[in-house]
């Protein structure tokens, strides 16, 4: 097995969530070499990111027994006469009127690529979950007890053989590797084994979780080794200092003595709570912005509900703005009724290519739909430099500047703000800069200064 260099930084993630993705991309944009590792398996990780469990399963890219591409929802194998149905968010499996399974899709969900399938017992409790990867292979299966509590998870290699069994009751992990059986008492020991196997036990570890990644950092400490590991704290502000973070501040962590906070409000709160300033840094992300904001009077709305707050008032209050209202499903008659306005264009069942074109075309985004967010709309609006407006009652994500968040009762304020920015390019540019700042944007130079030393 190929060994890595001592100078390469390990990014050790619990989950490859949005914060992990942005941190990984920031290192790439800064051209800092890293080895990105994820503990909780996903099945749909991008190239350049390794899941520690899946590492032992073999190369699915060369597997003759799998499709080589994601499994579409209607390709799941079920007994005769069972029916599979789906919409753009999830799917289900029925035996006549009885629900037998639930299908969960990988992002973006409208592509309907299978990530998980939950199978139910006669009482409707989850008893088994099948895990599929981006190559269409069943690579793991989780079993549950009668209370739908996890019991164990089994991982299969490219030949369908049992390779790893994780017991959720005892925390034990059994690994069958190269003709030997290894038993680990917990995930920390399992991850440490993997790192030693790869020759990475002496590399710096940068992590964004105070659970297993923190324990791994501490476990791998060696006498005389400098404290070079870094915690990237990405959680929102809270009223106390987490216990394991206090261990770092007290100098009791074996390998880590600095914390990089990526949420500005959380950084300020930690200082208020007495965190030592010399061990605390604020640092955002290096985003890839896809275009400039040119102030065109075109606004985008993405919704999967008819409950779009104050849409009528906003459309009537800004007749010079063209509003593109999109949904990845059918639209209700209530929502479609807004087509009577000359400045409104509706896009039911919008295609991905059309959405991409609209994010490129529009310069404003209205985050005013109730219920859940679709297509990571505010995140996409942010990296496409659309200026985002929202109501407090409808806000999704963390990318909207405070100056552009209004109460529903102050719809007039939102209309006036947008109208003023359309008339003043300088003010619009300042608003975009503020959005970048509050969205935790940082420079490449600052990122390198903090992360390479």
From TrEMBL:
Could you tell me the Gene Ontology terms of the biological process aspect for this record?
A: regulation of protein stability
**Lineage: superkingdom:** Bacteria
A GO CC annotation recorded here is:
protein N-acetylglucosaminyltransferase complex
Keywords, comma-separated and alphabetical = Cell membrane, Membrane, Transferase
InterPro entries xrefs: GtfB
> Quick one: where is this thing mainly located?
membrane
Pathway assigned to this chain's UniProt record: Protein modification; protein glycosylation
Report the membrane topology from the UniProt record. Answer: Peripheral membrane protein
The entry lists its GO molecular-function terms as:
transferase activity
Annotated compartments:
Cell membrane
- Protease listed as a keyword: no
UniProt keyword Membrane present: yes
* Annotated function: Required for polymorphic O-glycosylation of the serine-rich repeat protein in this bacteria. A stabilizing protein that is part of the accessory SecA2/SecY2 system specifically required to export serine-rich repeat cell wall proteins usually encoded upstream in the same operon. The GtfA-GtfB complex adds GlcNAc from UDP-GlcNAc to the substrate protein, attaching the first sugar residue. Stabilizes the glycosylation activity of GtfA. Has no N-acetylglucosaminyl transferase activity on its own.
> So what family is this one in?
Belongs to the GtfB family.
| Assembly and binders | Forms a heterotetramer with 2 subunits each of GtfA and GtfB. Part of the accessory SecA2/SecY2 protein translocation apparatus.
State the protein's name. Answer: UDP-N-acetylglucosamine--peptide N-acetylglucosaminyltransferase stabilizing protein GtfB
User: Which species does the entry assign this protein to?
Assistant: Pseudobutyrivibrio xylanivorans DSM 14809
Q: Which gene encodes it?
A: gtfB
